[in-house]
Write a structure and sequence with these properties.
By secondary structure, the protein is α/β, with parallel strands linked by helices. It is built from 26 helices and 16 strands. It folds into four domains: 47 residues, no CATH class; 163 residues, Substrate Binding Domain Of Dnak, Chain:A, Domain 2 (Up-down Bundle); 149 residues, Rossmann fold, CATH 3.40.50; 235 residues, 3-Layer(aba) Sandwich (Rossmann fold). 49% of the residues lie in helices and 11% in strands. The structure holds FE(4)-NI(1)-S(5) CLUSTER with Oxygen and iron/sulfur cluster (SF4). Iron/sulfur cluster binds next to loops.
C-alpha cells in the first residue's frame, strides 16, 4: 500500500514497519471498521441515559431515549465540533493578545512590538484613534480592543474583529440573520449550553448558532494572526526548503511542532545563540531548526526556517533517526510521538500546561524564565545528538525549494511596485480580463483516509492549468511546499498559459527575477484570515460582496474540529467550500441538505462534498465560471452590468 504521496516518505514507512513501530497508517488499519454511527453523526452520548445510536435505516430506534431525533443529534454533534475548533483558535488568539498587553504594561522583557506599521494599521482598521498615541500605549489599546471581543457583555454589539474586517454588505446580511457574535467565549459557551440534554431540539436553530460560533472562530483567528504580526513581524516573501530532506546529518536537528508562535519564536531566538555548543558537541553545521505543521508554517514565513513535514507524517520525522528533539506546544500533536520517540534517541518535550503527554518530559515555556527554559531544552537536544545511532539514519534526499511569506500585506506591497496608486489593480485587471479565471484557497489538514497530499496536488495541478491562482494555508500549504508547487519552476510546469504570463510579468516587475509561484503560501491555519483580508480588499475595491467573487475554498483532506469551524465561517462569509470527505452529518438528511444546499439561500456559501479530486477540481472550475458570469466579467467592458474596475 502506498500511504504517502511523497515516495521518499514511503521508504520511511517501510523502515518503521521493519522496526515494528506502528505509525498512523497501521493504527488506522487496526481501527477498521470505523464506527458507522459515529461516521454519520448519529451517536449521542450527551447524557448518561445513553449513549443512544439512531438506526439510520428503519423505524426502530429512530429517536434517542429522551426523544431527540437524528436531526437534533447530528446538529448538536456538529456544532460541538465547531465550538471545540473555535476554542482552540481563539484561545491561541487570546494568549497573543494578553502578551501584547503585557508588552504595553512593561511586564515582559521577552516580547516587544516588532511591527509598528502593522500596529498602526490595525488601530486604523479597528477605528481606534491613533493621533498622539505613542506606540506602546497604542499597543495597549489594540490589545484591550481585541480582548474586549472575548468579554463584551452587551449582546447587541459586534466583535471588533468581525465588524471591521468584512464587507459592509456581508455584515448587514449577518446582522439580519442574527448570527453576528459579540463575544467569542460567549458564543462557545452558548453552544455548550444549548446542546445540553433537553435544551435546543431544533436542528436549524442549532445550526444557526453553529454559524455564529464559527464567526467567533473567525474573529479569534483575526486576533491571533494580526497581533502575532505586531509581536513577531508581518511575513514577507522568503525562500526556503521543504520535505524531510531538510534534516541534516551534520547538525543537531530540532523540530518545532504545534501552533503558537509565542513559544516557537523563543526557541528560534535561543537556538541561534547556542550554535557554538552544538558545534562543540560534534555537529559541524550547528543547530538545524525545522518546522512541523502550523508552527512550521509560522517560522517558515517569518524566518525562512525549512518545513520538515505536515500533519500526517509527523512521526516520520523521528523515523529518519536524525531528529534529536521535537518540541511541541498545542494542537495536532499525535500522542503516539511519545512511543515513537522512545524507540529512538529523540527527546520529545512538551511546553504548555494544557498540552502534556503522559511520561513525556515537560518544560514549561511562557513565564518569566522562558529564555532559561529554552536553553535547557536546546541543551537536551544537543545531549541527545551525542546518542544518535548513525546505523539507523535514513534522511530522504528529496527537498524542494519553497517561496513563502505571502501575507496580504506582502501581496499588496508586491503589486504596489507595479501600481503604487492602486496596488490591487494589476491583480484585479487580470481577473477581469480572464487571464486569471479565479482564486481557490486551499486550507486544512491531512487525513489518514486519503493518500497524504494526493488530493491537494491533483486538484492544484488541474486548477492551475485552468489559469486559477491558488492560495494555501495550514497543512495544505505544507502539502504544496513539500511537493514543489510553491516555487517559480512550478509556474513554468503547471500554470496555464495566461496565468503563467501574469505570474511571470508580476514576478519580474516586482524585482524577483522569476515568476511568482502559482500557489502562494499565506501561512498557518489561523492565517486563513489573511486570504479573507485579500478577498475583502478585492471585493471592496470592486464594490461587491465576497459571495460574488470568483473565489472558492477547499479542504480536500480535512480532519480536525478546527477545520470544521473554519469551513463553517468560510461558507457563512458567502464562499463555497469543497470538502474531500463528508463531515459526520450524513445521518440526518435535513442537516445534510441545509449544509449542501439550503445554506446557499441563507448565507450564499455552502458545503460541496466530492471525494474524487479530479471531479472536485472540475466542479470548482464550474463554480468559478458561474461566478464570472454573475459579474459579467467575460463580456464587453462597456456592458451596463459590468463592474467598472478600471474607472
Ligand atoms: O491548524 S491544517 S492538521 S496542523 S488543524 Fe492541524 Fe489541520 Fe494541520 Fe494546523 Ni490546521
Ligand atoms: Fe440519548 Fe437523549 Fe441522552 Fe443523547 S441526550 S444520550 S439522545 S437520551
Amino acid at each position: 500500500m502506498n500511504d504517502c504521496y511523497n515516495c521518499s516518505d514511503q521508504s520511511l514507512i517501510e523502515k518503521a514497519e521493519s522496526e515494528e513501530i506502528d505509525l498512523v497508517w497501521q493504527r488506522y488499519e487496526k481501527m477498521k471498521p470505523l464506527c458507522g454511527f459515529g461516521e454519520q453523526g448519529i451517536c449521542c452520548r450527551i447524557c448518561m441515559k445513553g449513549p443512544c445510536r439512531i438506526n439510520p435505516f428503519g423505524r426502530k430506534r429512530s429517536v434517542g431515549i429522551c426523544g431527540a431525533s437524528a436531526d437534533t443529534i447530528v446538529a448538536r454533534n456538529l456544532v460541538r465540533m465547531i465550538a471545540s475548533g473555535t476554542s482552540a483558535h481563539s484561545l491561541h488568539g487570546k494568549e497573543v493578545a494578553k502578551t501584547l498587553m503585557h508588552v504595553a504594561r512593561g511586564e515582559t522583557a521577552i516580547y516587544s512590538v516588532k511591527d509598528a506599521i502593522k500596529l498602526r494599521n490595525i488601530a486604523h482598521k479597528l477605528n481606534i484613534e491613533t493621533d498622539g498615541n505613542d506606540l506602546i500605549p497604542l499597543a495597549g489599546v489594540v490589545a484591550a480592543n481585541s480582548l474586549m471581543d472575548y468579554s463584551r457583555m452587551d449582546d447587541e454589539e459586534i466583535c471588533n474583529w468581525l465588524k471591521y474586517t468584512i464587507p459592509d454588505a456581508r455584515l448587514e446580511k449577518l446582522k439580519k440573520l442574527g448570527i453576528t457574535t459579540s463575544n467569542i467565549d460567549g458564543s462557545i459557551s452558548d453552544i455548550m449550553a444549548r446542546t445540553h440534554v433537553g435544551t435546543d431540539a431544533d436542528a436549524v436553530n442549532i445550526l444557526l448558532a453553529g454559524l455564529r460560533c464559527a464567526l467567533a472562530d473567525y474573529s479569534g483567528m483575526q486576533v491571533a494572526t494580526n497581533l502575532s504580526d505586531v509581536l513577531f513581524g508581518t511575513p514577507q516573501p522568503v525562500v526556503s526548503q521543504a520535505s524531510l530532506g531538510v534534516l541534516r546529518k551534520d547538525a543537531v536537528n530540532i523540530a518545532i511542532h504545534g501552533h503558537n508562535p509565542l513559544l516557537s519564536e523563543i526557541i528560534v531566538d535561543v537556538a541561534y545563540k547556542m550554535q557554538a555548543e552544538a558545534v562543540a558537541a560534534g555537529a559541524t553545521y550547528g543547530i538545524n531548526i525545522v518546522g512541523v505543521c502550523c508552527t512550521g508554517n509560522e517560522v517558515l514565513l517569518r524566518h525562512g526556517i525549512p518545513l520538515a513535514t505536515n500533519y500526517l507524517s509527523q512521526e516520520l520525522a523521528i523515523i529518519t533517526g536524525a531528529l534529536d528533539a521535537m518540541i511541541v506546544d498545542v494542537q495536532c500533536i499525535m500522542p503516539s510521538l511519545a512511543k515513537v520517540s522512545a524507540c529512538y534517541h529523540t527527546e520529545l518535550i512538551t511546553t504548555m500546561p494544557d498540552a502534556k503527554i503522559a511520561g513525556v518530559t515537560h518544560i514549561e515555556l511562557g513565564s518569566g524564565d522562558s529564555l532559561k527554559k529554552a536553553e535547557l531544552i536546546i541543551r537536551k537536544a544537543i545531549d541527545a545528538y551525542k546518542n544518535r545511532d548513525d546505523d539507523r539514519l535514513s534522511i530522504p534526499a528529496e527537498k524542494n525549494k519553497v517561496i513563502a511569506g505571502f501575507s496580504a500585506e506582502a501581496i499588496i506591497d508586491l503589486l504596489g511596485s507595479i501600481n503604487s496608486e492602486d496596488p490591487l489593480s494589476p491583480l484585479i485587471e487580470n481577473i477581469v480580463n480572464g487571464k486569471i479565471r479565479g482564486i481557490v484557497l486551499f486550507a486544512g489538514c491531512n487525513n489518514v483516509k486519503v493518500k497524504q497530499d494526493h488530493n491537494f496536488v491533483t486538484m492544484a495541478q488541474k486548477l492551475l492549468k485552468h489559469n486559477i491562482l491558488i492560495l494555501a494555508t495550514g497543512c495544505g500549504a505544507g502539502a504544496f511546499a513539500k511537493n514543489a508547487l510553491m516555487n517559480s519552476e512550478a509556474t513554468e510546469d503547471y500554470a496555464g498559459d495566461t496565468l503563467k504570463e501574469v505570474l511571470t510579468f508580476l514576478g519580474f516587475e516586482a524585482g524577483l527575477n522569476a515568476p511568482l509561484p502559482p500557489v502562494l503560501h499565506m501561512g498557518s491555519c489561523v492565517d486563513n484570515v489573511r486570504s479573507i483580508d485579500l478577498a475583502v480588499a478585492i471585493a471592496n475595491r470592486l464594490g461587491v460582496d465576497l459571495n460574488q467573487l470568483p473565489l472558492v475554498a477547499s479542504a480536500p483532506e480535512l480532519m480536525s474540529e478546527k477545520a470544521i469551524a473554519i469551513g463553517s465561517w468560510v461558507v457563512t462569509l458567502g464562499i463555497p467550500l469543497h470538502v474531500g470527505l463528508a463531515p459526520p452529518v450524513t445521518g440526518s438528511s435535513l442537516v445534510t441538505n441545509v449544509l449542501t444546499s439550503e445554506l446557499k439561500n441563507i448565507v450564499d456559501g455552502y458545503f460541496m462534498v466530492e471525494e474524487d479530486p479530479e471531479e472536485a477540481a472540475d466542479k470548482i472550475i464550474s463554480i468559478i465560471e458561474e461566478k464570472r458570469l454573475g459579474l459579467n466579467l467575460d463580456s464587453s467592458l462597456d456592458s451596463a452590468n459590468n463592474i467598472e474596475v478600471l474607472s
